[in-house]
Amino acid sequence: MGKDVFEIVVNCVKMLLIFLVMVQLVPILVWLERRVSAFMQNRFGPNRVGPLGLIQLLADAVKFLFKEPFFPEKGMAVMYYGAPIMALIPGALALAAIPLGAPFHLEQFTWLGREWGPYDFIMQGYDFGVGIVIVLGVSSLGAYSLLMAGWGSSNKYSLLGALRASAQMVSYELALGLSLVGILMVFNTFSFYDIIAQQTGMPLTFNFFGKVHSIAWLPNWGIFFNPLGALIFFCASFAETNRLPFDLPEAEGELVAGFHTEYGGFALLMFYIGEYGHMMVASALMATFYFGGYTIPYVANESVANWVSSGGLATHPNWAAFLTSLIFFLVFLLKVFLFLLIYIWVRWTLPRFRYDQLMDLGWKTMLPWALFNTVLTAVWLAFSHRPV
Amino acid sequence: MSALLAFLIFVGILAGFGAFLIILSSSLGPRPKPNPAKNMPYESGVAGTETAESRVSVKFYLTAILFIIFDIEIIFMYPWALSFMDFVKSGQGMYILGAMGIFIFLFVVGLIWEVKSKALDWNR
Amino acid sequence: MLSSADFLFYFLGLVSLVFGLGVVLFRNPIYSALCLVITMISVAGIFGTLDAWFIAGVQLIVYAGAVTVLFVMVLMLFDLKHEMKTFSKGVIGNGVKLAASGVLLGMLGTYIWATYATEPTFKPLPAAATSSIKATKDLATSLFTTYIFSFEVIGILLLVIAVGAVTLSRITGGTHHAD
Amino acid sequence: MPINPEAWKVGLDHYLYLSSLLFIFGMLGVLMRRNVIVILMCIELMLNAVNISFIAFSRYAESTNGQVMVFFVMTIAAAEAAVGLALAVTVFKKFKEVNIRFFEHLKG
User: Fold this and answer.
1) pLDDT tens per residue across span B30-89
2) Is C122 contained in some domain?
3) What are the chain C neighbours of B106 within 8 Å (beta carbons)?
4) Is A206 strand, coil or helix?
5) Which of A13, A241, C72, C156 has its CA 20 to 30 A from that of B65?
6) Looking at the domain covering D35-108, what would its CATH class be?
7) What are phi and psi of A290, to 5 degrees?
8) Contacting B residues, span 19-78, partner chain D, CB-CB under 8 Å
9) What are residue A203's phi and psi, to 5 degrees?
10) Do C4 and C68 share a domain, yes or no?
11) Is B56 helix (H, G, I), strand (E, B) or coil?
12) CATH code assigned at B43
């Protein structure tokens, strides 16, 4: 975790901050969802409690806390109470593995009468070299919270809902995994930092069958190298998070609320935190792979650093370094919010799939198209980067 | 190594936070007043006839089996994606394309057979 | 003092052994399936302590995220009320089995004790490869150069299983009814 | 003979002890349990123990052959689990009971 006390403390604080980012973003997202859906349906949405209804979510959370604790008759305690905890874990673990901002370097500085050596911090929970494989592995654990909830509440229909939801989540994981193979081939690396480094600054340049073309007015983002993969990844991530138009397991008549029918109080809220966590992970991956991560499209990272230090904002170079990575963090947050907005927007526009249509779409259209995209990228790369 | 330590500490924080929330929410509310009608699993008003473990359509496990098989084929594509450009740049582009072509051909044959054998059809 | 790498190994090893034993000892198969999930995750962690990050990720995706989900799903589909007795009966049979594993454990125990009573040949961990990306690239290139043949055989094997598992689940044969 | 105080420093043989212990637990499970699914789970446990020793040897011998071998062991293990469970389901459908004793009736 670090060489000396300062680094360990900062790493632990960073860990807590990332966890708080996820837990605090959920109320904002729920508020945003209710406001945006209200706006779309030409009504107001929560605006009574606090300015613009922002405190509404705090009121809901407190109300949820004081509900009567309910335990189904023949339910299994370990599974019933374990499911909400298991719902929290995969989303947060995956989010902490994705870089939220540029790493920054602190020179030697004196503080509290002691000399603190130079440090290198990354705006990220923990950095495994092969980031994407760990993120996919951890987010594939999400199916267990559904199965445990369905089985623990010993209700026949919630078990059916849980099986349907996990079968859907499992089969769309295939398309999710396969759609990333194309973009990984283009970037030729697994680590997030190399991927983002290859997408910074210069306008779009690509090698098409030997000749290098460059389009000045397009940024060098991943989506232009692999548009089909981006589309499949984004649609499959809808199904991963059980959001509309793929939320059939929670919507059918007799399934009522699917796997979390028997839950009330804060456990229900924890399932929502899990769902929004998966949504944030999918939007963060979308932004990192296809839209240049935390970098500003045409501006190289160094020019942002120079702008901050020259702008007189920060006197000490350490503060300048910290401020530049803060700017990158805000840019990344803006991109993630754009995708979250699209999630909410799609929820209130598209009708819901029937279950066999939903499974057919997953197995018979998304998977073949993702495979086609992989083969297409392979052939294009093989013929254009040939050593002539 | 320190990344793994951070990972485990984070799992500890999450599990602790979740358990704290569960304990808090079950201790704060009014004392649970068990009453038979409320404790029955919610079947939208209809009295449940059998317990949860009764017969449920066995179609789901077939999806899980096929998921495992195709997931492994995708896992084999990750190292291919990583070393693809190195092979192409060192002049072995056709070799790697051929090797993976056979693998993807088998993948497609398996997928087509699954579709044709109606293993994945949900008649509901 | 215990360095962080050693602590990680002992912690993950303990978790995987305890929950590995849980898989065997739990009467209700659903709880043993959940213990299997935790064992798989801790084994992925042990791969992490050995700097094999790509294999740890693949272990999480394949084992923890696919195979054990199939186990839990199939267990949920079965009617578990009248579960037969979980452990095999028969005094002689059990006696032989327990004796065999007792002998194995004994051999392992004496071996550990014998080596560590004298001077252990402690081989320090060699320096990790430059970066985990480079290590994964070496793995990938060796997979496609020296092991290309077995890679294709694995492709054929997966096709055979895809066909086999589906036809297996459709046979309605069987000669006798339940005795 | 006192145990050497330096023994707790983790070396290659610590990984081998862990993997052999896990293997013995898996073997015990396969021998003792009667439910087919739990037997398949214990086989997965034994295969994981083998994977740990593969990776430990590949790490200390600084070669990637061990990791490629783990790749193939994982494929075989997943294939074995898939086919084994398909068999178990057919037995369950036929005899409403999942017990290793019924497997010899499965012909045709």
Assistant:
1) 776 666 666 665 655 555 554 444 445 667 788 889 999 999 999 999 999 999 988 888
2) no
3) 155-156, 158-159
4) strand
5) A241
6) mainly alpha
7) -110, -15
8) 58, 61, 65, 68-69, 72, 76
9) -65, 170
10) yes
11) coil
12) 1.20.58.1610
